[in-house]
Amino acid sequence: MEQRRASVAAGFAALSHHKLVLLLAATTALIGWTAAVTALPTLQEWVGGTLAGDAFIRNNPTQAPGLFFDLVQQKWPAFEGMRRTAGWMGAVGVVLQMFFAGGIVAVLGRGRFGFGQFLEPARRNFWHNVKCFLIFVLVALIAFGIWLGAAFGVRKLLEDAPPDAGSIAALRWVCWAGVVLIFAALSLLYDFARAARRYAGLGAIRSYRFARHALSGAWLRALGLWFFWAILGGAAVLVAFYLAWVMPAVSPVGILVMLILQFGVLWLRSAVRVAAWGSYLDFLDGRARHAIAATARIRYTVAAPAPSSL
Amino acid sequence: MRRFVPVLGRPLLALLAMLSGARLHAAAPVRPPVVEYTIEVSLDPAAKTLDGKERLVWRNPSNDRVAELRFHLYLNAFKNTQSTLVQESGGELRGDRMGEKRDDWGWIDVLSMKTGGQDLRPGARFIQPDGNNPEDETVLAVPLPAPVPPHGEITLEITFRAKLPRVFARTGFVRDYFLVGQWYPKIGVFEPAGMRGRAAGGWNCHAFHADSEFYADFGDFDVSFEVPSNFVVGATGKRVGETRKGNRTTYRYVQKDVHDFAWTADPRFLVTEFPFDPARDVPAGWSAKAAEELGMKEAEIALKPISVRLLLQPGHEGARARYIRSTKEAISYYGLWYGAYPYETLTIVDPPDDGTGSEGMEYPTFFTGGLAAAWMTRWPLSEVRGVEVVTIHEYGHQYWYGMVGSNEFEESWLDEGLNDDSEHRTTTMAYGPRDEINLPGGFGADSISIMHAEYTHVDNLDPIRKCAWCFFSGTSYGVNSYYKVGLFMAQLKNDLGARAFSRAQRAYFQTWSFRHPATSDFFDAFEKSTGRDLSEYRRQIVEGTSRLDWKVATARSRRIREPEGVFDRPGGRVTLDEKGNKEKDTPGTWETTVVFGNVGEWSHGTQARLVFENGVVVDRTLPADAKWVRYRIPSYKSKLAYAVVDPDRKNVWDWSYLNNSKVLGTGKGAADTYGKRAVVKYTGWIAWLSGVWSQLLWALA
Predict the structure, then answer these.
(1) DSSP secondary structure string, B457-496?
(2) At B257, is the secondary structure helix, strand, or coil?
(3) Can you tell me the distance from the alpha carbon of B447 to that of B453, in angstroms, rounded to the nearest whole number?
(4) Domain boundaries of chain A, sorted by first residue
(5) How many C-beta atoms surround the C-beta of residue B1 within 10 A?
(6) What does the pLDDT look like over B259-301, one tens digit per residue?
(7) Which residues of chain B lie closer than 8 angstroms to A40, CB-CB?
(8) ipTM of the predicted structure?
(9) Interchain contact B314–A (C-beta under 8 A)
(10) Are B553 and B45 in contact (CB under 8 A)?
(11) CB contact under 8 A, B686 and A74
(12) SS3 assignment, position B148
């Protein structure tokens, strides 16, 4: 328990790296804005250039819904273009995240660092992280396939049970709990495999072995950390989303507050991600020596950063 | 049959309307009825079968000698993949798939059909009145040994055995839940010459199609069904008997003046019985409003008590209060505006989550609700009024289908469409402008907007009036039978005014209750009541595909430049420029030009509005026969802020609301300011959602 608290504290301590949090938040905002600008001409002509904007922002009870449906239906290609751009930008975001993770695992928890100190390991670990990601996707597909297939099979056995039967509800809960648990476990393995490069120049598969050894005997503690940050981040995002959704934001000040709140959510989510990394690395720092020793045949070691910081 | 009312005829019609006071009191049911059914049936819940005996008295309503009877055997639509219903639906309807399990199929066999001791079954044959699908067995033709004379009658003793399908297209079973609809040999409608525009008398007995419902004669039903005693049951009409024998119980229900009978059985139903008490349950102000619109006294439109029975699924308790409230609102609205519900009972069935194919279906004095799953009635969807909309809609069919017995095969708009309109009026009265969808944060949608979105999202290839299986797609059937009619009726109400419209609709209901009207009867009733020629509505909207689409084609407002350059004046040559060398110092003036155009096919007038930056508002009427109208204001001290056509949204039939306005980009008017704010706000939202999506992917990867 003490150790978990220390890891959580280390996570919060990682938030002192404001620029790193800001980098992640700004990157996300840029990704979001790139998608949004594709819809901007349509919004300018058909929301700003007609009374639709007036009806929307003042939520005119009789005019706004019809205008909204018209806008979406008639200008759908513009919104579809925006949606596809958002999809591709999401993929770009995933790639960028693999890049950033390489730097994060190298510098976090080791005092102040410069931009160059962040970028160099980010570049160096990028392909390692890509390979770890592909392994993660493959394993996730197999694990979820087996789990959901089993759940579907059990559901077939219960098909004569009424929809409100306890067995159906239990199956639904077990199914979802399993999905979350499997994802949490795989997510930890994936993050720890990427973090292995903090300690040694391991290949992707060997990094997963490292992660498995690091987690051995401490799964509950690690899952506790994962859930702590997932729930904290998720709850913060949901609360902020709700606030942004219900705030009228009609006046310029209201709109500004809404935009700040929205950026705040992106910042918060980035902060939670950095904090989670801080916790994981603190967790690993105490177990890496053992995990590396248990990982068979190390091909090479890197000179720096050395495990001396463990 | 198209009606043409010459211009001179309009005052005459108006006079007739005044003299007749329109028809505001109900027609009596036809006596003796055309059909009388006495049925005894037994349900085997394990085999999902029905074994029945039916005694049918049929009275020939025509002057023809009828030598052949025709029967609907609807359950044969579920017999195999070759039936017309399965062929047309592709085996998928309302989210259900047909034929995935062995017991999915349903059928009905007529074992015998006797009259005067002679079995007619051997001579009977399946016919396909709607086309060339020889494998469809949903219509049985039965030659008679001797014709039924004009206004004569025949009595038939029929035995049948049926297997119910797994719930598909309104009827069937899921586990121990049984919704038994369209389940017995049901005689078609013999339409006498003159009825619904027929030149000669004949049978109207169509096959069961994927996109059609039903049509039958009014009559009396006396039905006894035997089920295991642990089953809870409900049925059309009033329960008059209950006999237990061993572990089985026989329930007897009777109802006069209805054209169908359905029943349900499920051991898990939670029963809620509640009365509709007009003194207590009519929402405040509704009776006075109805009386004012109809020009009647409140006592004249008083309602009657009704005994209501709600059969709820376990797990749907969250919907109970919503069912009860919306039922009372529906009874109030339809009763006050059209005429009091004449029956003593009403049964509402709440289908289970795995039997949604039987949701939202109407039968006389009996209907199924829907959208009551627990998650649909909880936050944030607690004010998405699915339960209410389905309840009000299906109750509404007691009027538009149940009492006004239009032909749902051939003119589905007369029941589904008119009912969509009535449903919308009820929900708006009960729940305000965001009557259908109300989400946290004040976002939502009203039924008119939803109907309009449905109207414009499908290719406008079909008119409203068409046989149900003749539309180019199932979606087109739905849009034309429901949503376009809702819009048409709303347009008609806006054009006629609430009072004239309400009186006309009541007159139509009262004239045609317990009868079988056609499209021409609808327009006749409305024209007679309002004194207006509505033939263009019928030709353009109901029997045509004309659209109305007024738009602001162009809107310009430019500053008038003062003279500049070199001028030879009496005092000599002068050079004028805007830097001070002016002939006179006048404040800025603006030339404004706006062109309004109707790019639709339907000629219909509307209002136009010009709003200037100094707050001055100019309203103009755009004539119906104009394709476009240009307004030019050569010189005015203020710039145009925006131009809008139909500012109060009276033309709900308008194809596009989005092109109804133009805001000038550089103005300082409120609309422009809010428009710019809206662009910033919603661009921010899109960027944010895209960013959150990206972060979600980060979290997942």
Answers:
(1) HS---S-S-S-TT-SSSHHHHHIIIIIHHHHHHHHHHHHH
(2) strand
(3) 10
(4) 2-298
(5) 9
(6) 999 999 999 999 999 999 999 999 999 999 999 999 999 999 9
(7) 679, 683
(8) 0.91
(9) yes
(10) no
(11) no
(12) strand
